[in-house]
Specification:
The protein is mostly helical and about 70 residues long. It has one domain. The chain has two helices and no strands.
């Protein structure tokens, strides 16, 4: 499960220039806070939004691949 923290932290580190360990800790704190405050409802809505983005991106990729 470390990749769940490391991948977004790596992207954050590359775009902002933050130290990678500071980015990992920041991502962990943000995700924990978001999950604690919003609860399961916030997590479900985030998953729905992410699925929508994936579906919207998959359609043009499928058409381009044909």
């Amino acid at each position: 499960m470390a990749i769940v923290l490391y991948a977004p932290a790596l992207a954050l580190s590359q775009t902002t220039g933050l130290n990678i360990w500071l980015a990992v800790i920041s991502i962990g704190v943000i995700c924990t806070f978001y999950s604690s405050v919003g609860g399961i409802k916030a997590i479900i809505w985030t998953d729905v939004l992410q699925f929508t983005f994936i579906l919207v991106g998959l359609l043009p990729a499928t058409i381009q691949g044909m």
